[in-house]
Automatic annotation (TrEMBL):
It comes from Aeromicrobium flavum. It holds the Pfam family bPH_2. Residues 76-151 form the YdbS-like PH domain. The chain crosses the membrane at residues 21-43, 55-77. Keywords: Membrane, Transmembrane, Transmembrane helix. This is YdbS-like PH domain-containing protein.
Amino acid sequence: MLSEKLLLDDETVEAETRTHLKVLLVPFLVGLAIMLVGGYFAGAVGDSGGGTPRLVGLVVLAVLFVWGTLLPFLRWLTWTYTLTNRRLIEQKGILTRSGRIIPLARINDVAYEKGVVDRMLRCGTLIIHDASQQEGLHLHDIPRIEDFHRKISRRVLDSHAPEARRDEQS
């Protein structure tokens, strides 16, 4: 998940997650279909034409398998959300890594949405609005959404508490 070298001094990881496994259902079914078609194709073509048609067909199916199954899995594996005691970090990317960091003190609103399927699978979309001009950050298909929402809300309130205390003292 998050590399220790990306943590600031006195920063600790509170929670780490990636999207729910449901996002891998379609790539799994695509991979299964490709393997079934590949098995049928290899048997139906046989060694006709010196085996070249079978080889070409299997290479095409292997490329489709990598594109339809392996790449979505790698995207899922490398897309992480990390909540620390000071910020929320989104990282993604297989070869080229990119990310977004939101300091907890800048977060104005934390909300979540769950559809019917999400409720059955205990996942949902976390929506975070901060004090920037950018659109709110939508974290889709977060597992155990209520727990993650509670953790981030608690941390956001804690980060705003010093400001509230200063306002009360003035």
